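In response to the reviewer comment on reproducibility (Comment 2.3), we provide here a single inverse folding case reported in full, input and output, so that an independent group could reproduce the run without further information from us. The structure tokens appear first.
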């Protein structure tokens, strides 16, 4: 390896190993092994998101295939073994529950034992009790929702939550690394905080540290062409972040970097997080060459201590059926037919949702193209307190569709075809109960830390 590949003196080099740990089976030969040759000072991987919906948090279930997660953790630990640098993994298991952190710890322990190697590991737990959130709400009743789909936080919503996680910032992660952790397995965490925490522990200023976090959170999606789960490195110095994708066919451009800065933002100028805001008003993006981009000018401003809290609770049991229709007369009359189906089902006490693929299933009323296809798929979902009630409601909806009457009908019934004979049991359905900003007295204390030696030395 040439000396040019090594970080320059005074530079902190971060490796964003993958945009989603365990999302698909990894192929480390494409970019990760090459990234290790660049001698990063820390390896970071995000493993979760609220984008996956409330099911996995509410049920404390696995989002990814555990074997894929193990493969990813194994290759990340290869980097720790080879370079002797720390590894930070955040939002373990997709949702960052305590159970998911323990599951990742068990994998690290198993891998360490197989290698005859121990890892000083910090387990950062983010689950919170209902009592904790009740007390936080009593202490500071103003807890605004972070989505228009939810009202102000209430004690009733807290009681309806099966699992609650506080979303940590950089502070607990930096503290764990400063205590000598080789591996950090964090519960639910802000994506950018994983990188910022590592950078701050290595001596970076908050501005470039959080800027690097925002740019690296999705790994290779900061480059073009857009390719998932490939490695990207960032060099941080006094005021700037230099990005370089590792996969040879990718490049960072002003456009790709600007797109990442605006990713999941209500405003492109402010990135709020626990205890501060990254001010991007003065950001400048410069293409250094055909593949590298420098970003500078971000300013970090401290803000009152507050944490996002996510909670999910059971909504009922769900069933669904899928029916296809190619009869142009029935398709033309779908709206009144579906209205009648929904009305009849709701009289049973169940809830019903209908999506028409080939018409407007994805965008609903916002769909600008008002042309319906020559055939459609009608997906019916029913929700009820018990599986039996949900099944009964779904069966009723399907048979009402089968026997629907409409103008110009040529047969006595049967204008739909079913993918299966009756219906599919979808089991428990969960809903978001909490997605609110909660004022706290400390950005560290809510997160329980356990330092363990995982694996063993030969």
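Designed residues, in position order:
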């Amino acid at each position: 390896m040439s000396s040019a590949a090594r970080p320059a003196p005074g530079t902190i080099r971060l490796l964003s190993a993958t945009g989603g740990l365990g999302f698909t089976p990894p192929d480390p030969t494409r970019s990760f092994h090459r990234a290790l040759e660049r001698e990063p000072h820390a390896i970071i991987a995000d493993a979760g998101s609220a984008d996956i919906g409330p099911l996995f948090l509410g049920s404390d279930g696995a989002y990814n295939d555990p074997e894929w997660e193990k493969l990813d953790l194994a290759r990340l630990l290869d980097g720790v073994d080879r370079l002797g640098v720390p590894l930070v993994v955040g939002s373990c298991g997709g949702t960052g529950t305590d159970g998911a952190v323990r599951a990742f710890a068990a994998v690290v322990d198993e891998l360490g034992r197989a290698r005859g190697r121990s890892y000083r590991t910090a387990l950062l737990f983010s689950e919170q009790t209902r009592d904790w959130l009740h007390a936080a709400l009593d202490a500071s009743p103003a807890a605004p929702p972070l989505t228009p789909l939810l009202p102000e936080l209430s004690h009733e919503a807290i009681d309806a939550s099966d699992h609650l996680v506080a979303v940590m910032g950089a502070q607990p992660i930096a503290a764990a690394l400063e205590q000598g952790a080789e591996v950090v397995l964090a519960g639910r965490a802000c994506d950018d905080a994983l990188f910022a925490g590592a950078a701050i522990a290595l001596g970076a200023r908050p501005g470039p540290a959080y800027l690097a976090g925002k740019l690296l959170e999705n790994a290779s999606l900061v480059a073009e062409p857009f390719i998932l789960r490939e490695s990207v490195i960032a060099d941080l110095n006094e005021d700037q972040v230099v990005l370089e994708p590792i996969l040879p066919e990718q490049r960072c451009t002003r456009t790709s970097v600007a797109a990442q800065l605006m990713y999941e933002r209500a405003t492109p100028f402010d990135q709020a997080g626990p205890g501060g805001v990254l001010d991007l008003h003065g950001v400048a993006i410069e293409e250094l060459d055909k593949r590298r981009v420098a970003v500078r000018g971000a300013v970090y401003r401290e803000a009152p201590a507050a944490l996002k809290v996510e909670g999910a609770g059971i909504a009922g049991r769900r069933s669904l059926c899928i029916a296809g229709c190619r009869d142009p007369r029935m398709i033309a009359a779908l709206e009144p037919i579906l209205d009648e189906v929904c009305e009849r089902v709701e009289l049973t006490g169940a809830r019903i949702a209908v999506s028409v693929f080939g018409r407007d299933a994805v965008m609903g009323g916002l769909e600008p193209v008002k042309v319906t296809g020559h055939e459609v798929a009608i997906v019916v979902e029913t929700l009820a307190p018990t599986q039996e009630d949900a099944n009964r409601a779904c069966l009723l909806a399907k048979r009402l569709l089968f026997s629907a009457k409409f103008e110009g009908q040529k047969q006595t019934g049967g204008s739909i075809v079913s993918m299966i004979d009756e219906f599919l049991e979808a089991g428990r359905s969960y809903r978001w109960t909490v997605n609110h900003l909660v004022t706290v007295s400390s950005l560290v204390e809510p997160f329980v830390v356990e330092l363990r030696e995982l694996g063993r030395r030969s």
